[in-house]
Amino acid sequence: MADNADHIDGDDNEDVRAQQNLIKIKLKSSEGGIYECGLTAAKMSDLVKNMVESLGTDAVVTTEPIILGNEAVTDAALKKIIEWVEFHWDDPPVDHDFEDEKDRRNEELSHWDKQFIDVDDQALLFDVIAAANYMDIKGLVEVGAKHICSKIRGKSCQEVREMLKITNDFTAEEEDAIHKENAWIYAKD
Amino acid sequence: MAQEVKHLKTELETTDDGEDVDEDNRQPQIYAKNSMDRFGDDLSQLLLSYLSLEDRFQCECVSKQFQRTVFVSVVDITLSDRFIQRLLNEKRSDTEMLATFAIKCSNIQTIDCRGITKDYEKRVPEVLGLLRDYCRRLRDIYCDWSYEMLATFGPLVTQIDAIICFNGSKAFNYCHRLSQLRIHSFNDIFDIRNDRSRVKNIRKFELISHSYYHNRRWPSFVAANQSIESLTVTSRTFRDEESVREMCGQLSRLTQLRELTLGLPLRSMVAVNPAVVSDSLRTIGVNCKQLKRLALNLCATTVQVLSLDSLSVFRRLKWLRLEVYAAIDDQLLEPLRHCKRLTQLGLKLNKMTPKVMTDLHQYCPRLHYLFIHDFNNIIDTECLSHISRLPALQTLVIECNADNDMAHEVKHLKTSLETTDDGEDVDEDNRQPQIYAKNSMDRFGDDLCQLLLSNLSLEDRFQCECVSKQFQRTVFESVVNITLSDRFIQRLLIEKRSDTEMLAIIAIKCPNIQTIDCRGITKDYEKRVPEVLGILRQYCRHLRDIYCNLDANSRQMMATFGPLVTRIDAINSYKYSKAVTHCHRLSQLRIHSFDKIFDILYDTFFVKNIRKFELISQSYDDDRRWPLFVAANQSIESLAVKSCYFRDEESVREMCGQLSRLTQLRQLTLELTLRSNGQNPAVVTDFLRIIGRNCKQFKRLSLN
């Protein structure tokens, strides 16, 4: 919001956003599925936002769907992503003057987000995260990151590997050396 | 599964060490969809950036990608005693571990060492020095005051929290990048020789205890710190209205101000003119155009109504918090109609009435967030209906005084508003209530859960505390009465240690205890009762009633806990019965004979105004004491007198006559022993008649 424009009002802006979300645009997954999404919600993705702005809103609404070519944007992942943005599009904007980045990072996920991101199918979870990253939806990537970090917390390396299906590419010697370096972590008080 | 993935990779003919890239091979490496290996380094780094420092080290050796990416996002670190203790082994002066740490986390920009205590502060320069050598991007150090620190690391220090030593303020000269500062008074930062501020160009400033006689320093400070964006000033006193105006006049010169917290205690000023506050605020509002956040804390003893008209000039205000201890009128918030951008409002007004809220939805239609401290139980249905008209409200927080019965009621109200479970926030436009499985106890809100669990015994409560967070929150809420027993004390206070930690934990968990019954404690443990009560009293702010017996060692206990004692069951030692005089709230008493509570020296009773009284054995002598007792205890509602022996009819009549003076009596239990020799049974009938006539409230009678 421009600082010296007194007439721009947060609330009018909100009305515009609500109005705009009634406009539906189409998003096409890499698998070919086409899904509708509110315009304001879709614009939470910086990728979509840039496309809409360069093409012009009218063009987007009337013509072809926006193609999301990344292989992570599967039908299932796109459906999840649309669910998330449609829930979050009216979140109050971040006030950079006051809200501390650090505090936000440490904030626990909301109950809704927790339920949303807690998917049993890890392939889908990773699709959603990778797709959100591709579509540049910062809030959703953050949700995914917090979720994964909460799963890693307190687990041993081997447990993390098994859980996240990570290949161990260290030799035993390398691993020992790291453990030795990090011995202080395991020190008893 | 790891094996399976390996297998997969082999099948796909990829090279697994990531080193050899086959130029012809255009196809990128294909990883299993459900393996985190599929992410590139940048995304991996982003995802891992939410780990704590410890977790990062713990999972460094998960894979080479982890090793590459897990430390990249370590940008801020907070030093603690424990950190230093672990990394710098005390006995060796070995800094190798710390150096390894610094090499791994070479992107550190900010180090916060304000949490270091005296024990380790000596080692801070050493740690910082080493980190500075390896972390080329280090820009900010937050610390407490220390001359040595500032002299060495001054140019890096951007935040200082507390100044403990006054004579070293010269060191500020080293901190030319300082941007945040918190001090007690201007003395801490002024050069006494030329009366100039040693700090300049700071952005965030907190002055915790300002006095009006430092007002003369404002001009120089403001001139040197035009850059201030966030300011907190809490004053101690003001001499007169002029000193308030003077300070606010200076503050209004800070044109970059975005956030202002102002504490104005006008209590000390006799007959303050309420206009002074409004005028001073107007000066600030007119000049500080950027101001978006304002918090005001006002106290005034004036009877005149405080007006905040001038809030209307704060056109850009987004966030307002008012804490006012003074007379206000119902139109207090009316000026806010001019603050079109206001989205957050906090109210802590001790004289607030529901009327203050009446037109709030017209004044502040954009309000997202509303906080109200409910001083006088004013949040009722009407008030909530005013609030519910706020069209944009998303969060409502109502804070109740802890001893407020209203808290319960509001909780109830909230439930009816279909709120989510975190208790504080009422989401007005709650579109999607949380859905829990029908057969899961999670579906219940905290209030219902608390109610359900309130039937558990104390032990069971502790046993199931860790069932869930909701259990933990709610299971102890309803612990209001506890009964101390020998076993309880024995388990909690281990005899040999004088360790009271366990008991303190119980007391912290059950802060709602109101009543403690320690009548069941036997001689073996009675010595420890005062200790137990002391700890419970310290943590349980609602403690109102103690039930106990009076023993030989009670004299000291009564001196301390007497005012809390409301029920005494047995006075076992005549010698110390005087201790009862400490119990001025005593309402229930059971004794063997009047001797225990009669002061023979002054011919008076130790107790008065009790409500329930039981006398186990009444003797002939007691006849003459009844008038005194009755006079001092007109409040008795329930009376039991057992084993009454009488000399003659006259004494029966006399006692009954006295009893009939207890007009508040609702319940009476009498065991009369009438000797058959010459006593007239009619005496009983007469007696009942008198009582019936005088004690109109009478409801229950048992006669033996």
Automatic annotation (TrEMBL), chain A:
GO terms for biological process: protein ubiquitination; ubiquitin-dependent protein catabolic process. Keywords: Ubl conjugation pathway. Residues 138-185 form the SKP1 component dimerisation domain. Pathway: Protein modification; protein ubiquitination. Residues 24-88 form the SKP1 component POZ domain. It holds the Pfam family Skp1. Belongs to the SKP1 family. This is SKP1-like protein. It comes from Medioppia subpectinata.
UniProtKB/TrEMBL annotation, chain B:
SUPFAM superfamilies: RNI-like. GO terms for biological process: SCF-dependent proteasomal ubiquitin-dependent protein catabolic process. GO terms for cellular component: SCF ubiquitin ligase complex. This is F-box domain-containing protein. It comes from the Eukaryota. Residues 1-12 have a biased composition (Basic and acidic residues). Residues 13-23 have a biased composition (Acidic residues). Residues 1-25 are annotated as: Disordered.
